[in-house]
Design goal:
The chain is an alpha/beta fold and 199 residues long. It has a single domain, classed as Rossmann fold (3-Layer(aba) Sandwich), CATH 3.40.50.1110. The protein has helices at residues 13-16, 25-34, 50-62, 93-109, 127-146, 155-159, 162-170, 178-189, 193-198, and strands at residues 5-11, 39-44, 70-76, 84-85, 88-89, 113-117, 151-152. The strands form 2 sheets. Strands 2-1-3-6-7 form a 5-stranded parallel sheet. Strands 4-5 form a two-stranded antiparallel ribbon. Helix 2 packs across helix 8 (178-189), helix 4 (93-109) packs parallel to helix 5 and helix 7 (162-170) runs antiparallel to helix 8.
């Protein structure tokens, strides 16, 4: 890590922090625990799928790149991909994995190091959606292992977390409140985040 560390967080509404009355989400909490010497950009957009993120990531990174900086990208998507609409999932699982692989390759060409945070569960989406999300999360983890990119799993831990479940159920059925996002931030902070950010 050099003196000018720039972090771009790419993803969906969970990255954006929808539902948090404190407007920090898990990204803000992770950054607060990381320290002040970071320039960070939250680039989460509600309802974005992997295809949406892939379509915009080059433009987003181009606008935030400066010569000599240590550029890093945190990616988190997949829950929206696995939502069923009109009898089919929004993004086929194979295409979701292709989108992630393409994004990883693009960041590698830019010398931007990547960390992938697995997709959180959507409690009100039902058992079939949960099964699809856990499956795609496992496949993402395997892809990241092959590509030597750190992957931080969240899906099963959050699905079993009573705080996450209670806040999601009290909210819109998908997004937690402040304590739920703290649980997600804790998974990131106790996972591979410290080693990745300090390397």
């Amino acid at each position: 890590m050099n003196g000018d560390l720039r972090l771009c967080f790419l993803g969906d509404s969970f990255v954006q922090g929808i539902g948090d009355p404190e407007y920090r989400g898990w990204v803000g909490r992770v950054l607060a625990a990381t320290g002040p010497d970071v320039t960070a950009f939250n680039l989460g957009i509600r309802r974005n799928t992997s295809a949406d993120v892939l379509r915009r990531y080059e433009r987003e990174l181009d606008e935030r790149t400066v010569a000599g900086a240590d550029h890093r990208v945190v990616v988190s998507f997949g829950s929206n991909d696995m939502v069923e609409e009109n009898g089919r999932v929004r993004v086929d699982p194979a295409h979701c994995l292709e989108n992630l692989a393409t994004l990883l390759a693009g960041c590698r060409r830019r010398s931007a190091r990547v960390l992938v945070v697995g997709p959180p569960p959507v409690i009100d989406a039902g058992a079939a959606h949960y099964e699809r999300v856990t499956t795609i999360a496992d496949e993402m983890a395997a892809l990241c292992l092959r590509e030597n990119v750190p992957f931080l799993a969240t899906t099963r831990a959050l699905a079993a977390d009573p705080v996450w479940r209670a806040e999601v159920s009290a909210g819109d059925g998908a997004h937690p409140g402040s304590q739920g996002y703290q649980r997600l931030a804790d998974l990131v902070l106790t996972g591979g985040w410290p080693a990745w950010i300090d390397s």
